[in-house]
## 1
Amino acid sequence: MEKLLEIKNLKTYFYQDDSVIKAVDDVSLFIGKNSILGVVGESGCGKTMTALSIGRLMPGAGCKIVSGSIKFSGRELLELSKEDLRKIRGKEISYVFQEPATSLNPVLNIKEQIEEVVRLHRKDIKENLIHDFIVKQLETVGINQAGVKVFAYPHQLSGGEKQRVMIAMAVISNPLLLIADEPTTALDVTIQAQILELILKLKEKLCLSVMFISHDLNVVGQISDYICVMYAGQVVEFSPAEDLLEDPNHPYTQGLFNCLQAFNEKGKEKLNEIPGEVPKSGDFPKGCRFHPRCSKKFGRCENEMPPLFIRNKTREVRCWLYLSS
Ligand SMILES: Nc1ncnc2c1ncn2[C@@H]1O[C@H](COP(=O)(O)OP(=O)(O)O)[C@@H](O)[C@H]1O
Ligand SMILES: [Mg+2]
């Protein structure tokens, strides 16, 4: 598979008074061209910080990319000047976040907001054609009555419509990579399914690569070509989606999987099958970071951090159980 983005050994830390929070701690992953990578893990595992690091969107001065490499379409993003990176961000790489309500400006109507993006990134579109272009973009992302809704203000749209508008704005520049961080988490299940369908459609239509982040393996499983499972700032499993869903290797992935099974069999009641919680980023346990919650742990797990073991050439698992495989 031809790679569009490749992250190697990325470390992004928060430096606070006298502590260091290792939000992203040696993450390596790649995203293929015209391919969807799902990134999954419980809250606090470092998914958002990995995504923000790609665009060097550090939330605050105490947050720094400490080391690593992020190669995007032949360029090393960590070596680009701020100016050059700004040209890539929003154009070749664009973001969609969980809360469309907070990303949209409440005092501008949809047309006015999208116009700003068109003027910035689509200088090829003539002034007198912008209105029709915007309506067409809204139709493409599945907004009904786009000719009317284009004049609506954010509060007049449903949650699903707002997220569609955000997605429309994100793809106006014809990006190579769309980073969608929990884009369906705030939506109910039916709307969630429609947004997944939309992202799949846009991927094909625009030949997009997508980094799709969710805490929900069920959602990620529906949309991904590859899946990256994160735990405590690290990648614990990286695999073609089909293989991972058929045979999850890491005990943490198996735990996420069991949550799904329990969810499916018992209907609405979601059971947390993984005891305990994600350790705080300033205070990781010695050895494997998952060992305090792992039912398969043995002596070595408590003392030594497992490396990523490569299995069948395409799968990676950070677990001592796979030492000899
Ligand atoms: N603004 C911040 N200040 C300090 N620590 C943060 C901040 N944002 C995130 N973190 C820490 O970084 C870790 C990873 O966070 P995040 O990437 O948001 O996780 P996820 O998206 O997987 O829920 C968390 O443990 C969190 O404590
Ligand atoms: Mg997050």
## 2
Amino acid sequence: MEIKGFEKFTLIDYPGKAAAVIFLSNCNFKCGFCHNSHLISQEKRSELKTYPKEEVFEHLKKNKGYIDGVVISGGEPTLYAELPLLISELKEMGFKVKLDTNGSHPEILFSLIKNKLVDYVAMDIKTNFNNYNKVCDGDVTGNVKKSIELIKTLKDYEFRTTVVPKVVDRESLLKIAAYLQLNGANKKFVLQQFLPQNCHDPAFLKLKKTSVDELKALQLELKPLFKSVEIRTE
Ligand code: SF4
């Protein structure tokens, strides 16, 4: 497990908290529209600086007065068996921890939730379950559904979908929303704007960014199904 990115301070990545973000590299999904291609592609990530854990922890300790939480993002953090140890060290330092995940490793999530190591989980729902294999590698929907069941037991969580043209249309979103509502995983849903920047598959760079008007119209339509529906733009 290598730390391939470290954002020292953010007010937008952990709702309601001042936080730092640790980025772990590699992901098993390899979505074409992924805007973190530098963390996904083997060639690009080998060129990235590796942040020594000691350096990151030193900064966190020094800034404990300003930072309430740490976000573990990626890439896909649950690829790493060492993740629970990393998070337990952060918890021992007194930080709240938010995890960003694609939901492909419910066994790691189970261990993190059972041991009260995560305070907030944000999980991507890529598209409706019938189309998942068109978006990412492998047959993952069984694990994604198991992860939804685990995450919905938390006090603080969000499910989020990037509205990518030609990948996630209104019909897909209605199916995702209906599934989450039917399964009681409907506390918070976030509609994310797609930006044609730094995409893993260059074909996505030719698409237009999702318009804010489209996101607002979708937000209005989905509102009755969730306790809250938010829009996240650039
Ligand atoms: S968008 Fe998320 S799940 Fe997809 S490749 Fe990028 S990091 Fe992985």
